[in-house]
């Protein structure tokens, strides 16, 4: 049977998205991508950039290097007066700090994307094990990397906390539904101790009661007790 030829990667037609939810999701993704590209441009080339974006709901988002205000003011001021030397030093230091922050931001975004991909791989692997009748905690760990082992450890600790919490809830529920289980055992022993104290001979009393030779109990309502 001949295999159906693949359509390959197709271009998405650029037009307004009618679905409001899909339009909002697309806006969030494209806005993040736009800001990321602008940050990379500033880091690689030392460019000064300002971006203003209004969402379909009217909420404003901005990105600027070194800041939106400084870039806009520079754009609006055609004949800006020369800055003093001290101000130039301050601006240079500020620009270096912003470039470093942009670099760190780009690294964090890249790491976040890698972690999302790793999480998707782990979820797919766990789903495949469940379909095969295996529990996710029984997965072989020989081929796991450090991040996968850390994620597995966190998941198992969370499972342990959930099991402990559920067990405590069941025990508390059983105690409430069965009052006999909630009786204080010390209270029962206290009653036996009080009964025993009433039959302890007083050493100062010469007429102290002596237990009968063939008695089978000692006053605890068992056997024949004292006479």
Automatic annotation (TrEMBL):
One of its GO terms (cellular component) is nucleus. Pfam families: SRF-TF. InterPro entries: MEF2-like_N, TF_MADSbox, TF_MADSbox_sf. GO terms for molecular function: DNA-binding transcription factor activity, RNA polymerase II-specific; protein dimerization activity; RNA polymerase II cis-regulatory region sequence-specific DNA binding. One of its GO terms (biological process) is positive regulation of transcription by RNA polymerase II. Its main location: nucleus. Residues 7-67 form the MADS-box domain. Keywords: DNA-binding, Nucleus, Transcription, Transcription regulation. The keyword Iron does not apply. It is found in: Nucleus. The keyword Nucleus applies. This is MADS-box domain-containing protein. It comes from Protea cynaroides.
């Amino acid at each position: 049977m001949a295999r159906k030829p693949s359509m390959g990667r197709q271009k998405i037609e650029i037009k307004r998205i009618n679905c409001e939810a899909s339009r909002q999701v697309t806006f969030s993704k494209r806005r993040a991508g736009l800001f990321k590209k602008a940050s990379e441009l500033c880091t690689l080339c030392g460019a000064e950039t300002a971006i203003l974006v209004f969402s379909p709901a009217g909420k404003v988002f901005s990105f600027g290097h070194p800041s939106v205000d400084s870039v806009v003011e520079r754009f609006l001021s055609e004949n800006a007066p020369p800055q003093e030397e001290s101000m130039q030093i301050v601006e240079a230091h500020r620009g270096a700090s912003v470039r470093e922050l942009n670099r760190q931001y780009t690294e964090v975004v890249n790491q976040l994307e890698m972690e999302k991909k790793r999480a998707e791989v782990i979820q797919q692997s766990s789903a495949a094990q469940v379909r095969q009748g295996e529990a996710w905690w029984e997965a072989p760990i020989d081929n796991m990397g450090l991040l996968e082992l850390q994620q597995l450890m966190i998941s198992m600790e969370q499972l342990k906390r959930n099991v402990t919490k559920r067990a405590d809830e069941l025990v508390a529920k059983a105690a409430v539904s069965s009052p006999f289980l909630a009786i204080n055992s010390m209270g029962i022993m206290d009653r036996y101790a009080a009964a025993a104290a009433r039959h302890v001979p007083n050493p100062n009393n010469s007429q102290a009661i002596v237990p009968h030779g063939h008695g089978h109990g000692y006053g605890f309502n068992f056997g024949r007790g004292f006479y």
